[in-house]
Amino acid sequence: MMLSKRIIPCLDxxxxxxxxxVQFKNHEIVGDILNLAERYSNEGADELVFYDITASADGxxxxxxxxxxxxxxxAIPFCVAGGIRSVEDAAKRFESGADKISINSPALERPDxxxxxxxxxxxxxxxxxxxxxxxxxxxxxYQYTGRPDQMQKANRNTLDWAHEVAERGAxxxxxNCMNQDGVRKGYDLxxxxxxxxxxxxxxIASGGAGQMCHFQDVFTDTNVDGALAASVFHKEIIxxxxxxxxxxxxxIRIRP
Amino acid sequence: MKTVIVNSGCANIxxxxxxxxxxxxxxxxxSDLQEISKADRIILPGVGTFDFAMSGLIKNQxxxxxxxxxxxxxxxxxxxxxYFEGSAEGVAQGLGLAKGMADKFLSEPNLPVPHMGxxxxxxxxxxxxxxxxxxxSYVYFVHSYFIPLGETTLAETTYGTTFSASVxxxxxxxxxxxxxxxxDVGATILNNFLKLS
Lengths: 256, 197
Description:
The complex is a heterodimer.
Chain A: E1 6-14, E2 17-22, E3 25-32, H1 33-43, E4 48-52, H2 55-58, H3 64-73, E5 78-81, H4 87-95, E6 100-103, H5 105-109, H6 112-121, E7 126-135, E8 138-143, E9 152-157, H7 158-167, E10 172-177, H8 189-198, E11 203-206, H9 212-221, E12 226-229, H10 231-234, H11 240-249
Chain B: E1 2-6, H1 13-22, E2 26-30, H2 33-38, E3 41-44, H3 50-59, H4 63-67, E4 73-76, H5 78-81, E5 86-87, E6 101-104, E7 115-120, E8 138-143, E9 145-146, E10 153-159, E11 161-169, E12 172-175, H6 183-195
């Protein structure tokens, strides 16, 4: 018996609606937060992630009303992200019923913030999101990725940062491989393996899922703990229940 | 029937409350000694650190009140670990209702810590809390410390080592996993807890 691999739909939230853009740009509305969350939970999603993609770049934080509404309905864990800049911001999300919070740009601005959150809430509830891109054979971090006009390269190497966030006590890393994001050509297996080797905390793959076999590849060829995807689920290109059956048939440990 | 969730100062209370409300239970969150002592069902939740949780109980003068409860109590995650004598996570004394200490998972290349995600229940005891559950049922875990197997163990889970997924000491039941986040299996357990006599 072992831990099962997690299938995690990601809901990018903008102005209270679920949206999806290609490589972080040109967002289109794909649905209502609660309806989609419930649908995914019923289809067997193991966890949900909500990213408020405007909050981080805007300097605002996510609205806790929908966090509360999601917590009331769902009986699976979920993580919220977007513009959490203080321990108080995080506390409000947890009080509203979120199981985990994920931080990205604020951690890059002030890495000690990770330690403060871990101290207050424990490692298990603190996720660090990393947006990473391959340039000239190196993996580099990007920040403010919610807004194309503000997006910028952070002066950090992805593998060093992954190692550092784990050392600081983060409980999980979601690695979004930006070269692959939204183009549905498969997960960046090479980068995921490199980051897997750089840290021992749970690692979630993000960016690139287009077909069921991409999930099979990421669970077979890398030792990630879960795979996150957005558009293939929102657009019903892949059904979560069919995906989980497919992966089980391939011998991958998946919760029915 | 009145269910009270002990306000331990820990953060994940809302999701526990909502889970019981989905089952139609009348639930309050309280750190008031009287209200807790009078409740029909008591939940001891927990996210955070062992020492922080124990200091919260001490601050609210709840230690003796909790230890003297005779109605069904459900400790969740860290709340269950508080039943024991202590934890490798800190220096605080636990409630000492049961013998043993929480231990830390060893981080190995193929075993990321925390143990986070859906894992299976094995060797289920014939206990009313677990009524209707199948061997191998999946439940959701998030933790870095665990209670080793012992005489209080009701169900086991394996992650590198095999540990107590659920325990019982008289009227004190515990789940290392989060029933409030374990979909239908979790709802069955919470419903069983409400029906305990």
